[in-house]
Specification:
The protein is an alpha/beta fold. It is built from 19 helices and 15 strands. It has a 6-stranded mixed beta sheet with strand order 3-4-14-9-10-13, sandwiched between helices. Strands 8-5-6-7-15 form a 5-stranded parallel beta sheet, with helices on both faces. The protein binds pyridoxal-5'-phosphate.
Length: 462
Amino acid sequence: MRYVSTRGTAPVLSFEEAMLTGLARDGGLYVPSEIPTLSQGEIAAMAGLSYEEIAFRVMRPFIGDTFADAEFGDLIDKAYAGFGHAARAPLKQLQPNHFLLELFHGPTLAFKDFAMQLIGQLFQAALARRGDRVTIVGATSGDTGSAAMEAFRGLENVDVFILFPHGRVSDVQRRQMTTVTEDNAHALALTGDFDDCQARLKDMFNHFEFRDRVKLAGVNSINWARVLAQVVYYFSAAVCLGAPHRPVSFCVPTGNFGDIFAGYIAKRMGLPIEKLVIATNQNDILHRTMVSGGYTTEGVTPSISPSMDIQVSSNFERALFEAYDRDGGAVAQLMDQLKSDGGFGISQGAIGQLRETFASGRASEADTSAMIKRALPEMGELLCPHTAVGVHVAQDHLGSTPLVTLATAHPAKFPDAVEAATGIRPALPERMGDLFDRPERMRRVENDLTAIEALIEEGVFA
Ligand SMILES: *Cc1c(COP(=O)(O)O)cnc(C)c1O
């Protein structure tokens, strides 16, 4: 299996190289050169298997000869051993034909753990074998950073630096990053918003001299291995609900389009997914794009679902690449236009293709709070605000096909919003009860590439 860039001109890589590289050198994102399919029989045979076994069967066709079967199986087992639920991604019923896929049983209480715990294992195994060491730099709106610090802390062959927008992440999110004690893990609080963090990260990847000197590697959802790890739970959930014999739809609270793009890959692999519903908060560029056919950035307005406060949705580029029939030149042109004009129009053919697979909706701040409040008496669930955006949008898509809304975080990760809506302050699970007693450690940094690079070099070469 080989990996190609969405902009068509970067070197073609193996799974291992694509995973360790992150962003392609032409500014694009790596995708598999073809999408493998599983037969109806292979999908049917997943019924009743453990999450780990399904993970092995779904991901195996993508990894080429990077890991032998036995080693890959062991790494998957290690990745999910620290989860607080035997099913890893349990399904609950909310309403008639509406289900909740709980993706918050990992060590940092958000779905990011599914991918990050696995790639921590994959990175360490691959780097140890090569005798190599890398510097991982990530940008976070809160959950990616905590999941990455947790996954990479203490690993021998990795330094990890996380850029987060100062004052714009929840206390739980910040503390999950700043209370990590291992020397190889560094939290950097940037003066700016998430899009600034993501833009500086992209600048670092495009600054080849720096990139090569520190051996920069990326674990944002631009990293293909992360998308791949997230494909698994679409299979485990759909098979529970009767796939491949019965179609299923999913509603996904979306920011950077990584999680929902994993659902698109599952569909292309042969899983009978009828619709993938994009659920946005008030920062609704993806919903507006689906409605109007034009991708136009506006400023970000902070919301109570901060992990979705994004206007430049990186993984949407992967969906565009498919919708433009894998024409890297066309995608590169759109991305140039985005940089120069702040937006672009999508061709009739491409938006038509996107609308065949994706539906969309948005939840205002009032909608989100109202859903958190309503869900407790009506569905017996205390929802995190991101999940509430999904459950709100899902109300317009209920029907004869089972609909699964992804619960992307635990309510205790966003206690202020949950308490404001319900009067109940959700408690952290027992295993992280001392989070607010641990000392914090972080560095402040301006929104300036040179300053950020200097801090990273100081940490790497200390
Ligand atoms: C990251 C995140 C999202 C958005 O996921 P994308 O892959 O960026 O679309 C939604 N909810 C929570 C809780 C998150 O951490």
